[in-house]
Hints:
With about 240 residues, the protein is α/β, with parallel strands linked by helices. Helix content is about 35%, strand content about 15%.
Amino acid sequence: MSKRALLEVIALDPEDAVAAQAGGADRLELVTDMAADGLTPPRAVFAAIRAAVDIPLRVMLRHADGFAAGDVDALRADAAALRAEGADEFVLGFLAPDGRPDLDAVQAVAEVIDGCRWTFHRAIDRAADRDALRKELAGLTAADGPPGVAGLDTILTAGAAQGVDDGLATLLAEQSRTAAAEPGYAPRILVGGGLGLGHLPALRAAGLDAFHIGGAARPAGWSAPVDAEAVREWRRALD
Length: 239
C-alpha cells in the first residue's frame, strides 16, 4: 500500500509501551483496568509512559465499565490533571440510558481538553443509532470554533458490539461515506474490537487505514505484557 496504515496498541504501563513502540506501533492508547474494558490511567503512569517512549499517546477518560459518563466533574478534573502533565491526545465517549450520545457530558469533557485531538471510542457500537450519533456529534458547536466538538478526529469502532466479524459490512459502508465526505463521517475510522489479521485484506482494500489492537498484542493473555514480535507481525501485515 502506498499510504502507511496507522497501528495503535493498548498499553497499560511503560513495559507495554516500550515493547509496542519496538514492534512498530505508531500510537498508544493508555488505559488501566482491562477487567473494566479500560479506564483512565493514573497521572503518574501517564508520566512514566511519556518518559519511556516518543510516539503519540491517547489517554482514556472513563471511570467505570459501560458507557455512562458518571461523575462528569471527576472526569473533567482527571482531564485537567493529565493536560497539566503534558497529555495532548485523548479517548472518550458517553451514552445516555436510551443509547443516544450523552452530548452534555461529551462537550463538558471536550471543553477541558481544549481542542486536543481525541477519539470517540466504541460506545458507538452500543449506540441506538450509529448514523444519528455521528451526526449529533458533528452538530455540536465548540465555543469559538466551527461546528463539531473541537479536536474530534477519530471514531474507534468494530462496526458492531460483537466485534469486527459481525461489523465488517458496516465498517465498509461507513468508510465509503467517509470517502464521500458525507456530513458526520469526517472523523477517521479506527478499526478495533475483535480485529484479526484475516480481516485486513478486505478492510485495506476498502481504504481503511487505521487499526487498534489490545489482546492481539498479547498472545499470552492480558496478564502478560505486550509482545513486540506480535506487534511486529501486525506492522508487517499492514505494510
